[in-house]
């Protein structure tokens, strides 16, 4: 199993230490005293990836709580408060209390995730390098957009009020395409422990088009729970009906998923606690899915893709959970701070990256159903308005207002009701996703 901390004779596995080899050699030099005191067993647990993932939740949560108020005070001094304006007088009345609340709070989320990854993840892993790159790139893009919008009034009249929609989309797509290409190249690297034909099978498994109900592996295998599962599962072939994506198809799908999820989370960030809560619940689901994908035994038992080297992405998912929970401390209604594009673009991009890396794009659409419902409601509203204006000369709307959380708000739901119900829907959708995995 990945992350199983010890080797024979009480020797720690340096590949499981989640950091510098210096720590490994330090522990090895102290092995005698550690074995005498029994502390070696504690270290074996501490170095397991599952433990580090749960520790990441606590660390990132604590970091947001520790730095939350100082960062909020700094944002207030910078006068980067939100001034929401909508093309709907009733909605402006409902959201009037949000005026002046500092935004760009996403620096809290992204900063705590980054620090937690650097502290607890395996920094020699290419998948961890990519996670850091996605986090930093999308947070910088969002921060630049936020800063332009929030400081335009203080700059020369006529200055840019944020990035133009096509500019932001172009950056998102370009970054997503680049990251998807790197994921593809990483998937073709000979995995550790893979030999000959088995290595080729694992490389193909990391590039499959993973569809609901489709078995990735050819035959289900029943294993003895008391036997060495890795030996029993070794050599299981891919299902001949599975499609292994080439470079073009992989990059196209990855670009749509990463950029699309980034946009969807960004659109959903319109109520106190909505985006942070839904992302937090989705990250819980993906921490479990990453654990499955990173373990050959678990992946082949459940007939889903096995992607060698992804186990440490559990730490990334754990950091996302903790950061979102910590941010909710300040973002729950009435919010003291908003995440802005700085947080929403980065969280969405990181969630999309996890899905692409472990080949669970279809389950992302289900687990993140709220995000894609929000994005779809905007597309349908705009599209229907333009269509009816062409046909009848007067544009009509499908919803009272889009995104759809405003539709329910204008329909009589309180902001807290909308947020809580969307959280509950995400939990139910996550359970449905696990049921789909098991049904294979």
Provide a short characterization of the protein structure.
By secondary structure, the protein is mainly alpha-helical. The protein is built from 19 helices and no strands.
Describe the protein's architecture and organization.
- The protein is mainly alpha-helical and 440 residues long.
- The chain folds into two domains: 1-47, no CATH class; 49-368, no CATH class.
- Helix content is 65%, strand content 0%.
- It has 19 helices and no strands.
- The protein has helices at 21-29, 31-37, 39-46, 49-77, 89-94, 106-120, 126-151, 165-187, 197-205, 229-233, 247-268, 274-294, 296-301, 313-331, 340-357, 361-367, 369-392, 404-410, 415-439.
- α4 packs antiparallel against α6, α6 (106-120) runs antiparallel to α7 (126-151) and α6 (106-120) packs antiparallel against α14 (313-331).
Layout of helices and strands:
Elements: H1 21-29, H2 31-37, H3 39-46, H4 49-77, H5 89-94, H6 106-120, H7 126-151, H8 165-187, H9 197-205, H10 229-233, H11 247-268, H12 274-294, H13 296-301, H14 313-331, H15 340-357, H16 361-367, H17 369-392, H18 404-410, H19 415-439
Helix pairs in contact: 4-6, 4-14, 6-7, 6-14, 6-15, 7-8, 7-15, 8-11, 8-15, 11-15, 11-17, 12-14, 12-15, 12-19, 15-16
């Amino acid at each position: 199993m990945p992350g199983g901390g010890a080797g024979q004779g009480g020797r720690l596995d340096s590949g499981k230490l989640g950091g510098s080899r210096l720590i490994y050699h330090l522990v090895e030099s102290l092995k005698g005293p550690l074995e005498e005191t029994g502390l070696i067993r504690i270290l074996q647990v501490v170095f397991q990836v599952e433990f580090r993932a749960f520790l990441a939740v606590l660390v990132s949560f604590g970091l947001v709580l520790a730095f939350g108020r100082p960062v909020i005070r700094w944002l207030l001094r910078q006068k980067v408060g939100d001034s929401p304006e909508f093309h709907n007088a009733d909605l402006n009345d409902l959201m009037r209390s949000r005026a002046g609340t500092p935004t760009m709070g996403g620096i809290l989320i992204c900063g705590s995730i980054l620090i937690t990854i650097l502290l607890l993840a395996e920094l020699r892993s290419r998948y961890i390098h990519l996670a850091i790159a996605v986090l930093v790139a999308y947070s910088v893009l969002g921060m630049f957009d936020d800063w332009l919008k929030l400081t335009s009034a203080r700059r020369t009249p006529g200055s840019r009020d944020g990035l133009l929609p096509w500019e932001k989309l172009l950056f998102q797509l370009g970054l997503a395409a680049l990251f998807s290409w790197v994921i593809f190249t990483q998937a073709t690297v000979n995995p550790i422990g893979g030999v000959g034909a088995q290595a080729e099978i694992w490389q193909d498994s990391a590039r499959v088009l993973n569809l609901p109900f489709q078995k990735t592996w050819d035959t289900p295998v029943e294993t003895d729970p008391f036997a060495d599962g890795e030996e029993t599962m070794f050599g299981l072939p891919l299902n001949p009906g599975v499609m292994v994506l080439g470079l073009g198809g992989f990059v196209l799908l990855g670009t749509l998923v990463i950029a699309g999820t980034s946009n969807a989370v960004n659109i959903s960030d319109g109520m106190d606690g909505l985006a942070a809560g839904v992302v937090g619940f989705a990250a819980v689901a993906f921490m479990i899915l990453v654990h499955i994908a990173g373990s050959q035994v678990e992946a082949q038992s459940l007939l889903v893709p096995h992607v060698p080297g992804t186990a440490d992405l559990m730490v990334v998912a754990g950091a996302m959970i903790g950061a979102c929970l910590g941010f909710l401390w300040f973002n729950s209604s009435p919010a003291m701070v908003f995440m802005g594009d700085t947080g929403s673009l980065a969280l969405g991009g990181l969630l999309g990256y996890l899905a692409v890396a472990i080949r669970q794009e279809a389950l992302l659409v289900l687990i993140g159903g709220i995000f894609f419902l929000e994005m779809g409601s905007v597309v349908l509203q705009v599209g229907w308005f333009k269509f009816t204006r062409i046909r009848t000369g007067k544009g009509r709307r499908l919803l009272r207002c889009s995104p759809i959380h405003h539709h329910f708000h204008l329909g009589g739901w309180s902001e807290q009701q909308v947020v809580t119900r969307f959280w509950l829907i995400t939990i139910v959708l996550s359970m449905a996703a696990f049921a789909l995995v098991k049904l294979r």
